Amino acid sequence: MRDLAYGLVRVLDDEGNAVGPWNPRLSPDVLRRMLRAMALTRAFDDRMFRAQRQGKTSFYMKSLGEEAVSIGAAFALQRDDMCFPSYRQQGILIARDWDLVDMMNQIYSNKGDRLKGRQLPIMYSAKDASFFSISGNLTTQVPQAVGWAMASAARGDTRIAASWCGEGSTAEGDFHAALTFATVYRAPVVLNVVNNQWAISSFAGFAGAESTTFAARAVGYGIAGLRIDGNDALAVYAATAWAAERARTNHGPTLIEHFTYRAEGHSTSDDPSAYRSSEERSKWPLGDPVARLKAHLIAIGEWDEARHAAQDLELAEQVKAAAKAAEKNGILGHGMHQPFATMFEDVFEDMPWHLKEQSAQMMSERMRKWPKPGEGPR
Amino acid sequence: MPDAPATNMNMIEAINEALDLMLARDPDVVIFGEDVGYFGGVFRATAGLQRKYGKNRVFDTPINECGIIGAAVGMGAYGLRPVPEIQFADYIYPGLDQLVSEAARLRYRSAGDFIAPITVRSPFGGGIFGGQTHSQSPEAMFTHVAGLKTVIPSTPHDAKGLLIAAIEDNDPVIFFEPKRIYNGPFTGYYDRPAEPWARHPDSAVPEGYYSIPLGKARIVREGEALTVLTYGTMVHVASAVIADKGIDAEIIDLRTLVPLDIEAIEQSVRKTGRCMIVHEATRTSGFGAELSALVQERCFYHLEAPIERVTGFDTPYPHSLEWAYFPGPVRIGEAIDRLLEGN
Predict the structure, then answer these.
(1) What is the mean pLDDT of the segment spanning B80-85?
(2) A198-214: per-residue pLDDT in tens?
(3) Residue B313 CA from chain centroid, whole number
(4) Which class would CATH give B6-181?
(5) Do B109 and A135 touch (CB under 8 A)?
(6) Which of A26, B8, B177, B284 has the most CB atoms at less than 10 Å from its CB?
(7) What ipTM did this prediction achieve?
């Protein structure tokens, strides 16, 4: 068992064959749906990255190269298993068929944004998709996932929790807290570490990667640890299904290190050429997760280049249509924001006097800042 | 309330009863923290509760405040109503990110998708020879955070009613328990014999359920000469000094710092024209600074004298020099004299 924390679980070999004991033997239909969700995530990322560059929003984060990590897991979990994601797991929402327009409304912070324009783009919250509100403070969600799982177990609920954090933020104290609580209470939780090699500009060595693996963190806590090929959707599926089954049958938590590669910058706010070689991505030995799953489907005679190209076109159109629909609700900084008074809602369930006073102050400032009706901040 | 029979209790017993009652009333309430389960808490606030409600409802945790509060946030998201204990307020800092960045903002950032109906109980304050790591009063760190409520009881009666209200509240509440008055209403005269709660009228705790709304102050004593704004242990210290000096002061026990009962403050200061603020916490950026600013902004033309702030000094809480540090009768008395000078 311990070897699994130091090895690398793979299913798809370099020729696109599904091999070995971890092969989840998924039906071609499921494989095609996974491929579609991964390709849709990529198309979505592509469009939203460009939207940021076009000035339609302030910020975006792509998951290029890491699509299998979210989507393989989402397919292996039940839809009502509670996910506590980090900021690069948009694939979970997409795999759970969440409305793209709703996601884009959030990215544009527009009047259709359920989160009332309060959160940085991509910090989604979707309780109906069992997707917890994303925080910009790293790794806080990991002990929260453990707490959620403890509650579920105490209630005899069959739902489990899963969390994701980056390899860089395993250095946070919250990670240690989470693993301690997870092992002490045998919490039904899957703790994912997405080792994409880079924490903004710092390579994984600054989180300890030169000394051991991140999966090996599990060993000291008496938790099952798996290090897997995170660019292999079938390995992610199989490892998650295994960990979920363990959790659901009260065998405790599992830590999964997804060995992957962040193919783009950290976000729209950084230029990776300032800290890493531009050739690195093409030299990455584990390949492109979409291309690998596609090659597998082609190898088993269940897919072909023409269908793939047609699907890419179709998904690009789907994303484009969603973006148009979302842009009807406004883009950041073009006036179609949430009503002013919403700024003071939801600080508390009931608004105390000091917020009512401040709200009145803001409204009177508004009359001086933008005296004409319908005007608002640009 | 007047009809319910009452029992004389100390503050620990009143807190224990509130927890017991809420565990019985609401199956979503869970209580956990360091030593709170089997042992019943280092101050005995949770004594007997694990045996009565089982380990799924009342349990011990690892020594990790980040984990305690983080798990509470997750449990709250699940639908439970967690009541974690932080053993001493001095230990709360490892859990601060989970409180400040997570619990406090969850409702706002998710627009109500998720909430954090958590009550964090924690003994705070000094006067027990606890040294710098068992004596702090960090309430102002929490009142500064949007989305947190801060509650501080000063009597067994209020401790029960306020704790019940805090647990029922759907927002995160920091419930600081003044540990110096767990067993008796300390007057600040450390050299006098300790008083038990039994002789104090507010130790009469009604049986059964009652709650005291958050955001409502209590007029401890009505008066005309000056207004005292205070909370926690210092309610009793200020009351004793006022009694000793024979001054007709109006003493307001704020009970909740956020949301604050601004009406009670304004009404009183407008009546008396003089205001003294008393807290044990360090002075600079203490909650007294906020109170002083509010009184100045809202009651300036009613003031007959500069507002007085009586606080702990801006040093860590000293061990051997505790009574030199503590804002006791002498410091309060001098402030009163200044306030009434030339009256």
Answers:
(1) 98
(2) 999 999 999 999 999 99
(3) 19
(4) alpha beta
(5) yes
(6) B177
(7) 0.97
